[in-house]
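Fill in residues.
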């Protein structure tokens, strides 16, 4: 039964982005409840089940569990489910208001877990204002006979994941903790996908900075650093909740899944290390870019200084012969003017040649 766990979670199928409307139990858009289903022995029971009817059916039979999915519910929309499942007010407040750090908390009768979801935003070319990472939130209430997922944001739909899990009843038969593991694995896999895409953006910026045309402005680098920082804030805090699931026995979490949570934690560690390396690499790229700017400015100043030195010769000569003295050399000589101009041009040519040879021009 456990052997099929990883296979069910990692089916080689493309993930659907955005809101999934293909599921037969999908509620109409505009309602908070996205899906409500009853699972017995890992098999989804046919028919549409309101939340109250679903939980009564499960508790009457003493087997299976209910999985309810919600999308950005209001306090009023969530009130009925809160009363039905006895959810803790503090956890409910976090689930409705969102903007929480990844965490895991144990309340009376339920386990409350918060995940930050991440989606890479496609763009043709990275600019100073490009959005690279879009984040959302996913809260999971796990009880003995129920799983309640609350999603915030325009991505991270669990419809495809639910359908994948339903293809392997042996996994769902483990109970609500199997759903919690699948969600954690999906979230971390999305982190890996986003990190891989950001790596391509960093490679592009790096190539531009070190190209002959000297592209890759500081604005793009700073924007990418901000997006990497946003990704880091979403990813890094999840490490402690996953370590808790790995090392400590938790209510409503099957002990057989701790090995699989460890695998998810290992993938998360890899993402955190990769993001840290991104930050270091971007710092190096930024320093290289600033060094290039400094070198270019120095070269411009050298060129300006060289031309100023060249023009100083005719300026000096003209200044001398512009003085109104009666007795000055070559002033009354027929060839005085051509001689002075020839000497001036010759000195300018010699100075220009010297600067050219030394790489100043």
């Amino acid at each position: 039964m456990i052997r099929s766990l990883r296979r069910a979670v990692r089916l080689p199928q493309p993930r659907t982005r955005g809101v999934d409307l293909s599921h037969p139990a999908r509620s109409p858009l505009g309602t908070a409840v996205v899906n409500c289903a009853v699972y017995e022995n890992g098999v989804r029971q046919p028919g549409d089940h309101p939340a109250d009817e679903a939980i009564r059916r499960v508790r009457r039979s003493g087997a299976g569990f209910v999985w309810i999915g919600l999308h950005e519910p209001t306090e009023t929309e969530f009130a009925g489910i809160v009363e039905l499942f006895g959810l803790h007010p503090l956890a409910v407040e976090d689930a409705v208001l969102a903007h929480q750090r990844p965490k895991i908390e144990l309340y009376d009768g339920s386990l409350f877990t918060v995940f930050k979801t991440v989606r890479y935003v496609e763009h043709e070319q990275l600019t100073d204002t490009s959005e690279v990472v879009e984040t959302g939130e996913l809260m999971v209430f796990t009880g003995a006979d129920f799983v309640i997922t609350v999603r915030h944001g325009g991505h991270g739909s669990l419809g495809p994941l639910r359908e994948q899990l339903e293809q392997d009843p042996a996994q769902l038969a483990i109970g609500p903790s199997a759903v919690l593991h699948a969600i954690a694995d999906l979230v971390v896999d999305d982190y890996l996908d986003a990190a891989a895409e950001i790596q391509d953006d960093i490679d592009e910026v790096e190539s531009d900075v070190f190209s002959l045309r000297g592209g890759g402005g500081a604005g793009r680098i700073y924007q990418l650093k901000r997006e990497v920082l946003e990704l880091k804030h979403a990813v890094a805090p999840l490490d402690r909740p996953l370590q808790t699931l790995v090392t400590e026995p938790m209510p409503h979490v099957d002990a057989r899944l701790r090995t699989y949570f460890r695998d998810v934690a290992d993938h998360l560690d890899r993402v955190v290390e990769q993001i840290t390396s991104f930050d270091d690499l971007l710092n190096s790229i930024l320093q290289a870019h600033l060094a290039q700017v400094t070198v270019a400015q120095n070269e411009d100043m050298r060129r300006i200084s060289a031309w100023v030195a060249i023009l100083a010769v005719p300026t000096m000569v003209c200044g001398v012969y512009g003085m109104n003295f009666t007795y000055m050399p070559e002033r009354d000589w027929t060839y005085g003017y051509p001689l002075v101009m020839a000497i001036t041009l010759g000195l300018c040519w010699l100075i220009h040649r010297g600067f050219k040879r030394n790489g100043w021009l």
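Confidence is low (pLDDT under 50) at residues 1-30.
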